[in-house]
Amino acid sequence: MADVAAMAGVSSQTVSRVVNNRSNVEEETRQRVLSAMRVLGYRPNTAARALVTGQFRTLGLISFGLGSFGNARTVDAVTKAAQRAGYTVNMIAVESQTERAVHEAFDQLTVQAVDGIVVVEAQILDTPALRLPPDVPVVMADGDVSLRHPMVDTDQALGARLVTRHLLDLGHKTVWHVAGPEDSYAARRRAESWHATLKEADAAVPQMLFGDWSAASGYEAGRVLARRPGMTAVFAANDQMALGVMRAMIQAGRRIPEDVSIVGFDDIDESAYLSPSLTTVRQDFDVVAERIVSLMIDQIETGTAPAATAFVAPQLIVRESTSAPPPTG
Amino acid sequence: MADVAAMAGVSSQTVSRVVNNRSNVEEETRQRVLSAMRVLGYRPNTAARALVTGQFRTLGLISFGLGSFGNARTVDAVTKAAQRAGYTVNMIAVESQTERAVHEAFDQLTVQAVDGIVVVEAQILDTPALRLPPDVPVVMADGDVSLRHPMVDTDQALGARLVTRHLLDLGHKTVWHVAGPEDSYAARRRAESWHATLKEADAAVPQMLFGDWSAASGYEAGRVLARRPGMTAVFAANDQMALGVMRAMIQAGRRIPEDVSIVGFDDIDESAYLSPSLTTVRQDFDVVAERIVSLMIDQIETGTAPAATAFVAPQLIVRESTSAPPPTG
DNA sequence: ATGGGTCATGTTCACGTAAACATCGTGCGA
DNA sequence: TCGCACGATGTTTACGTGAACATGACCCAT
C-alpha cells in the first residue's frame, strides 16, 4: 500500500479511501491511484484490515460433513449466497457428535476469524456444556424454535403432510414411515407431522422405523416392512432410504407401485431416473440459503439478534412410485 | 492479551510464549498464565497473528460447487484432512466458467486470507488471462501434468481400463462410452483410457457420446444408444449418467444385464441399491484428500513447489448390472 | 572470586490498515 | 473584502501479536 501511495504521489490514507470507495477523492487522483494499484498488483491485506475493523467478511459453517444430499446442497447454496453478499465461507466438519469433537470444531471456528456461524444440523448444539462465543451471531439451518437462535429451514412438517395426504388420498388405509435418526430435528419434524396427519385422518398409526439416512438403513427397514401384512404405502424420510426400501420390496417380490407405493424426501437428482421414478418432496435450498445469509448479515451489521424463524414451503413431486393400493388392499 | 498479562502479573510477551508453547517459560508462570486465560476467556486474535506471521492456517478451495458427487466428496475429504492438520478451509464456488466469474472467485480468495489454493476442477485454470497470485501454492485435485501445478487424483485411466477390460472379458465385442463434458480433465482421461483399452484389445471403437454428468444427459445418451444395433455394453463416465442410461434402456425394453451391461464410475451411495445394482468404480477420496493436503502443507511450510503428481488407484466394484452379452450378441 | 554462558522474562518495534483529527485551498455570501 | 464552510488530502495513532533484542539472575569452570 505504501508503494502504491508513493507511485501515485499521494498518502497511504488516500489509497485506503480509494480502495474503500469513499466519496472524498477527486476523480483524477482516484484514477492515478487505481492505475498504480493495477501496475503494482496491489492486494489489500485482509489480516490488517480485519485487525482494524474487527470484521472478516467470513461466515463459519459447521456441519457433520457433506455426506448427505441435504447438507451438500445447503452448504453449496449458503456458500453461493454468501459470496453474492461479499462474504466467504469457512467450513468446519464435526467428525462425530462427541463432546470433544464438537468443542474442537467450535474452538477452531472462533480462533479462526468469522463474523457469524451457520449451524447446518442443529443437534450439534445439543452437546452438553457447549459454550458458544458470546457475541458471535448464530443462524441455524435446521432445528427447533426452542433453541434460542434464528432459524431458517424448509417447512418439514408441510412436506411430510403433503406426502401423507397424497398417499391417503390415493386410497391407502394408512402410511408406514421410515424416519431419519432420532437426534435429527428435521427427521423428528417430518415424523411428527406424518403422525399428526394420520391422526387427523383417523388412520391407524403404524409403528415407525428408524434409519440413518443411508440407503443401507432403508433397505433394512424395507425388509422388515415387507413382512408386515396389509402394508401398501411407505413414506421414507429421504430419497436414499426410499431407494433402499424399493430394493427390499422388489427383492420380496412386490411391484412398485402396483403392490406398494413409496415416497421419499429431498428430490435428489437420481430420483427422476429410477425405475420406477420416485415420488418425493423437493426442498428449495436456494431460498433457504438466501434467507440464512441475509439473516446472518442483518445480525452482523446491526448487532441485534432477530428472533426470526422462517419456513420455506417445499413441493410434492408426484412420479411413478405411487398409485392407488391394490384392490384387495 | 494485555488483560491476561496483567492478571497473571507478567508481560504480554510471556503470554504469547505460553500460547505458542515455547519452551522458555517456567512451569509455575505457565500455569498462572493459563488460568488467567481461562478466567478471562481469552482467545487469540487471528487477524493480528496473521498480520505478524503472514500465515493464516487456512486453505482456499475453489470449485464449481458441490452439485456433483465427486466434488462434494472431495471437498468433504479435503476439509476433514485439513482440519486434522490444523487448517480450515475457505470455500469459493465459481458460478460459471466465464472469465469474469473465475476472476472474481480468485480475487475473493486472495483478498481473503489463504495460505494455499486447492483447485478441485482443473478446467477452472483454463480461463484465459487468469493470473494466479504469484506466491500462493496451488494443488489440483484433477487435471493434467501439463498444468504446472502439483496434482493428486484418482487414477482415472486405470479406472476406465478396469471397466473396459471387465466388459471385454465378459465377452462383449466392444464397449460404448458416454463421456463427461469435454472440458473436464477427468472425463477426458477416462475417455482416452477407454479408447486405448479397446484399441489394445483390437476391438472396434464406437462413436463416443457426451453428457454433462447429469442423469438427464445420460438418459438422452441412452435413448440414442438404444437404437444402435449390436450395442451390448455401455460404460458411462459417472454413476448418474449410468442411471440415466439404465432408465432409457429399460424404457426401450432392454433388460439389464441380460441384454445390455452397464457400468458407471464413482460408486455413489445409491449404486448398490439400484435394481439392478450398478457395477462401478470406487474412488478413494480420503486418500486423495490426505495427499492433497500434505502436498499443500509441504509447499506452505517449505516454500518450495514439489512438481509431484500422485495417482491413487481406484477399485472396480462388480455388481448386478454387468454380465455376458446375449448369445446372439 | 570472576567472567562467560544460560535461562526466564521484559521492552521495543513492525506488520498494513482505517479512524480520527489536522491542514490547506477554494469558493461563496455578507 | 473578509470570514467561514466545505472538500481534498495528509498526519498520527491504534488495532493485537510475535520477532528481535535487552536485562537480570544464577550457575559453573577457571
The structure class of chain A reads alpha/beta
Beta fraction of the residues of chain A?
5-15%
Helix-strand pattern of chain A, N to C? HHHHEHEHEEEHEHEHEHEEHEE
User: Uncertain regions of chain A: pLDDT < 50 for 5+ in a row?
Assistant: none
What is the rounded Rg of chain A? 25 Å
Q: Could you tell me how far the N terminus lies from the C terminus of chain A, measured between alpha carbons in angstroms?
A: 77 Å
DSSP helical segment count of chain A? 11
Number of strands of chain A: 12
Largest sheet: spatial strand order of chain A? 2-1-3-4
- Report the biggest beta sheet of chain A as strand number plus sense, adding barrel if it closes: 4 strands, parallel
Mean pLDDT of chain A: 93
Most extensive chain interface and residues per partner: A-B, 54 and 54 residues
Short description:
The structure is a homodimer of 329-residue chains. Helices cover 42% and strands 14% of the residues of chain A.
Architecture overview:
The structure is a homodimer of 329-residue chains. Helices cover 42% and strands 14% of the residues of chain A. Chain A has a four-stranded parallel beta sheet with strand order 2-1-3-4, sandwiched between helices. Chain A is of the alpha/beta class. Chain A is built from eleven helices and twelve strands. Chain A has helices at 2-8, 12-19, 27-40, 46-53, 69-84, 99-111, 156-169, 185-200, 215-226, 239-251, 285-302, and strands spanning 58-63, 88-93, 116-119, 138-140, 151-154, 176-179, 209-210, 233-236, 261-263, 280-282, 309-312, 315-317. The structure holds a DNA duplex (30 and 30 nucleotides).
